[in-house]
Amino acid sequence: MIIAKESVVTMHYTLKNEAGEVLDTSAGREPLVYLHGVGGLISGLEKELEGKQANDKLNAVIPPEEAYGSRRDDLLRIVSKEGFQGEEALVEGMRVQLETDRGPAVAVVSGIEGENVTLDLNHPLADVTLHFEVEVLNVREAEAEEIAHGHVHGEGGHQH
Ligand code: ZN
Fold first, then answer.
1. For the segment 63-116, what is each residue's pLDDT rounded down to a tens digit?
2. What is the CATH number of domain 7-68+125-149?
3. According to the model, what pLDDT value does residue 98 have?
4. Distance (Å, rounded) from C-alpha 14 to C-alpha 158?
5. 64-80: string of b/e by CB count within 10 Å (b at 16+)?
6. pLDDT tens figures, 49-60
7. CATH code for residues 73-120
8. 158 alpha carbon – ligand 1 mean position (Å)
9. How close is the Cα of 147 to the center of ligand 1, in Å?
10. Integer distance in angstroms from the first to the last C-alpha of the chain?
11. Which of 64, 87, 115, 150 maximizes the CB count within 10 A of its CB?
């Protein structure tokens, strides 16, 4: 069967940036299993996978607007160093966990100037054109319960 809305897709993937560096891969691990058409993957990759079937291999180049978006200046926050008790060695480039109005988030310390710390809440892959190599291993129809939950159950999925 071909990949369409509410297919459960099992696949191996390798993600590289424009320079060819591997950012993420399922090679050597369990393949990725996801429910197609419910926003489980970035939209550009789901679009490329639509209509594919088991044993298909594809290379997909996904621009930022169909992946993790553009970097936004309003996602830079300047906070006081005092907020970081216990974080003795606050250095540029380190990741910190923080509470936002939309729940916990990870930010990168992008600048330190006196008492001011600039936190960057942009996704690390914002502005990055993604190069995916994908091998589709299996496609099946989702169970009614999986569709209701919006995720895959069983092998590679939620155990509950
Ligand atoms: Zn569930």
1. 999 999 999 999 999 999 887 776 567 899 999 888 878 888 889 999 999 999
2. 3.10.50.40
3. 82
4. 23
5. bebbbbeeeeeeeeebe
6. 999 999 999 999
7. 2.40.10.330
8. 6
9. 9
10. 27
11. 64
Q: What is the pTM of this model?
A: 0.82
119 φ, ψ (degrees, to nearest 5): -105, 135
**Side-chain half-sphere exposure of 31, counting CA atoms within 13 A:** 15
Tens digits of residue pLDDT in 8-58: 999 999 999 999 999 999 999 999 999 999 999 999 999 999 999 999 999
Task: Write out the residue limits of the CATH 3.10.50.40 domain(s) in the chain.
Answer: 7-68+125-149
Q: What's the rounded Cα separation, in Å, for the pair 35 and 54?
A: 15
Is residue 42 a contact partner of residue 66, using CB atoms and an 8 Å limit? yes
- Distance between Cα 124 and ligand 1 center (Å): 29
State the Cα–Cα distance between residues 93 and 14, nearest whole angstrom. 25
What is the distance in A from the centroid of ligand 1 to the CA of 77?
36
pLDDT at 104: 87
Residue that is written with structure tokens 């058409």 in the block: 37
Q: How far is the CA of 153 from the centre of ligand 1 (A)?
A: 6
